[in-house]
Amino acid sequence: MAIRILRLGSPRRRGEGPRLGTVRRPPRGVGKQDYAQRNFYDAWLPELAPSDALLAWDRSRPFTPARWAQFARRYRREMTLPGAHRLLALIALLSQHTNLSVGCYCEDETYCHRRVLRDLLTEAGAVIAG
Fold first, then answer.
1. CA-CA distance, 8 to 25, in Å (whole number)?
2. What's the Rg (C-alpha) of the chain?
3. Is 105 helix (H, G, I), strand (E, B) or coil?
4. Tens of pLDDT along the chain (130 residues)?
5. Domain assignment of residue 128, yes or no
6. Does residue 129 belong to any structural domain of this protein?
7. pTM of the entire structure?
8. For strand 3-7 and strand 19-21, is the pairing parallel, antiparallel, or unpaired?
9. What is the spatial distance between Cα 77 and Cα 20, in angstroms, rounded to a whole number?
10. Are 112 and 6 in contact (CB under 8 A)?
11. Is 35 inside any structural domain?
């Protein structure tokens, strides 16, 4: 039993379990009835996505490694809010008993909130699939 961290919309893997979308917005041009069928997500958890304000700040200037570090710190701070914190704890607990997947739309996890989310889930005691 474990959590997979993945890109939403990618082909499903055998045994990955339900997909949780940790994105601020649903996929464009896709009807709600097709989210799961088109491999986006089975359940939407925008509470685990960076806030609109943080995303706007992130896009307001060119990328630098220092800016990424600041983004990661701010996102971590947002994830200490009670709703997000409780969801992280729940997902971590569930990962010890069933397979789950969490993700977002970014092609590369290197400078994506799901990289930080992976660390937050690990810190909360989640079992993360390699």
1. 12
2. 14
3. coil
4. 999 999 999 999 999 999 999 999 999 999 999 999 999 999 999 999 999 999 999 999 999 999 999 999 999 999 999 999 999 999 999 999 999 999 999 999 999 999 999 999 999 999 999 7
5. no
6. no
7. 0.93
8. unpaired
9. 21
10. no
11. yes
CA distance 50 to 30: 22
**CB-based burial of residue 83 (10 Å sphere; 0-12 exposed, 13-18 middle, 19+ buried)?**
exposed
Per the structure, the complete domain to which residue 108 belongs is given by 3-123
**Predicted pLDDT at 77:** 98
- Cβ-in-10-Å burial (0-12, 13-18, 19+) of 48 comes to buried
**Amino acid in position 27:** P
Q: Is 109 helix (H, G, I), strand (E, B) or coil?
A: helix
Token reading at 1? 């039993």
The tally of domains found in the chain comes to: 1
User: Is 33 domain-assigned?
Assistant: yes
